[in-house]
Amino acid sequence: MDAEVGAARGSGAGRPGAGQRDGTPAPYWADLSPGTGRLAPRAHFPRGGRRFALGGTWSFRLSPAADAPLDFLGPGGPAQGDGDWSPLRVPGHWVLQGHGIPRYTNTAYPFPIDPPHVPDANPTGDHHRTFRLPDGWRLPGTVLRFDGVDSCFKVWLNGRELGTSKGSRLPSEFDAGQALRAGRNDLAVRVHRWSSGSYLEDQDMWWLPGIFRDVTLLEVPAGAIGDHFVHASYDHGRGSGTLRVDTDVPALLSLPELGVHGHPAGRALHLPRVEPWSAENPRLYTGELAPVSGDAAPVRLRVGFRTVAIRDGRFTVNGVPVLLRGVNRHEHDPDRGRAVTLDTMRHDLVLMKRHNINAVRTAHYPPHPDFLALCDELGMWVVDECDIETHGFIHADWAGNPADDPRWRPMFLDRMRRTVERDKNHPSVVIWSLGNESHHGANLGAVADWTRERDPSRPLHYERDRTYRHSDFYSLMYTPVAEVDRIGRHEEDAPAETADEPGTEQRRRRLPFLLCEYAHAMGNGPGSLADYQRVLESHPRCAGAFVWEWIDHGLRRTDGSGREYFAYGGDFGDSPHGGTFCIDGLLFPDRTPSPGLDAYKKAIEPVGIDIEPDVGRIRIRNRHDVRDLSHLRFGWTLETDGVHVAEGELGVGPVAARRETDLALPALPALPAGPAGETWLTVRAFLAADEPWAPAGHEVAWAQSRVRAAEPRPAPGGRPTAPAVGTLDEHTGLLRGLGGVDLTGPYLDIWRAPTDNDRGMGDNSVLRRWRAAGLDRLVIRTESVERRPEQVLVRSRHAPDGLSHGLRTQYTWTREDDALRLTVDITPEGPWDGLSLPRAGVRFTLPARHDRVRWYGKGPGEAYPDSEHAARTGLFAADVASLQTSYVVPQENGRRAAVRWAELVDPATGQGLRVETAGSGRPFGLTVRPWSSEELEAAAHPPDLVAGDRLHLHVDVAQHGLGSASCGPGPLEEHHLLPQPWRIELLLRPLGSGGPS
User: Fold this and answer.
1) Which residue in 112, 183, 248, 360 is deepest, having the highest Cβ count within 10 Å?
2) Is 638 helix (H, G, I), strand (E, B) or coil?
């Protein structure tokens, strides 16, 4: 039980919040008012005077219910020595600073569905800060600004109530001038964890109460500008711009770069030549807006000229179709929760840019305003989403959903007004989103109508009302690749909501398509990213897609032994909870990129490189929407068996956006005489000069092609002989040693520690089918161990208890020079009925000291059938620890694909094992771990995994794909591992201190 909730239940406090069936007014935290005493919403900027930041250490007290005594409003605040008060960092969340616990839910509300009421048990945090006002501060008109408070609060200054507010991720401003004093001041804030506003904030995230964004005093000199609205459009036909800046007081506009000085605000200005703003070329013009009278400082402006429009069913900016290669981004830090810093925001955007991401959907609320300023500066298309989601009503079959209850309309409109007014001057914001997963209703229509009237320059997005009457996009989530292809061709079935409304359906079919969530990045995955991107780029109707999501929402904790891990739902004793569903990002909680981010970077490369050695051609395709390729250089590298042979540069001119060019294959040097190795040509595109988000030399795109295959291995001379370099068990035929290496195996290996996508969601779970088929509990029956002069044959059958299907194996051992040759034949038997397998391969164990691994194959990172497009062929080395991907929830990881050979060596002695392809030379998948698959599957967090004294070496011929069935489709059919006869041919060679290298 949540400790806060338990305390409140026992207290009997807070009865007024339980509901007003007797007709008495509801308390402010449970009424349907957005707030009281607030100033009108406006753009985010200083008011022409000084700013005084009130963040830092505050005094804090946690009470179990909403009606705790108001005994901290007097001069000096809380009584000295009151043990109920303690220091608290602001911005911050009290549950991350030792007061109560965080709670995570996906869709379920963590309180009864009884709108607008909340439980008596309503943890309430009282905050107090004493501050001294800077000398000479002008008191009248001073604004007290809160940029984010979760979920409802009341504020007092020097004992005088200023007002209340709801809307956690939105700003609230109050007139503090009447209460403010020169010198010492006392600021008191009461924050309630639950409020009527909580019903609009069920956004698949941790419920984290507190003052988590900045608190600021803004001085307002006489004549200061209170609000302004920048209208800066671009005419792509003429290359001209039109600028009008509306203000609430007379003001003069200056943009020195464009020769504009003292132009009256509110009057349109035609500029014959401007450079447009885009995410690829984020050109900003710096200027200022000076009030005509008074002594207020000018307002600093950063103006980006751009025109957003939907033309002929395509999403365009500046007359050019744009393809959004995006991510959904929650604000999260593993230690600070949603109290993210400016450095963290910049770090996120730099990582996005370096991984070819060009768009962010601010799921599911407006971000910190500084994040949007960085998007303007660095270049990012933004879908700015309102702080509305009522997803939990799905558990009541949407009965009582606020979206269709007129009593809630003021709350809905207030949230959209505060979003639009705050963010209206950011050129990066190109789409307004009305909210997320709130079903449908008249209140969403009212929000859409108001937004269109206030800002007709941006289109609107809303996905969950399938009539799309309030949206300018046809939008879906987690749509399979094949269905996206049908939508791109306008061949999709009509939604049930529009099937009988021809006019509405006709409008829907004309809309551009936006996949607002896809590729659920939970654990190992997502798969099929390249397949999705291929389809999205194939159809003009497709405006792009946003991976769910940017970062795992793990919270940093330590266990009883001091080992660090990242917590998820239920780890704090919270209930109900959404378990591991918050661990679904392209970044780990500490912002380490996951393999999924590398896969996404490769899939959405803004440059396509096709190497065609058979025709002597390299085709370069510019996938940028706006920018030509003059900012990139292109180089090539030639390698044989992973060893560098030659390199050079390619002369690629300034290929225009969405155009392509063909180049002749460079003249490659003659390759060395002797047995021919495998030779690969790699072509890379990299930055020619520094960018604000990456240095020169940063790789943007790459491609590889094999230009010469390896010559087949010559057959060994003489007759094959039975093994002599290895020791085989007489009864089982298993290897018990190889040369000086304590190597055991092989064991049939068809199981893997389930990934989150294997577990899936509901009935969409391949893991359920695997377990039902007993694939995790095969037992072995050794049929025979036959020794012949030239070989040893081991025949076995592996099958689950109680079922008739199974797998028959034959291991054939022969000696080949100083190596053992192992041929593994796997043959399915019995009724498999279309069932897939996790993997097909064998495993061995050997002492843990052989922990230096070198391999020739794909790398450097892990790779699976539907993610290995991000791995390149080469020669790589790592220790075993580095081969592991430490997912927050332990699962299958660390596989290297298309391996030709691998060596595992004890660095102290140089002794070890070399595994090579033999016979047909078919590459294998390689996984080396310090723990077994069974131990990996049993672990709840990485510290549960303890390295043993043996390594587990997995060699597979194939694995099932990843997909994204944790919330979406599973792997494509071509990546299903269906039962079939398999053959694995390997050479196992002991290595001495001077062995092969």
Assistant:
1) 360
2) strand
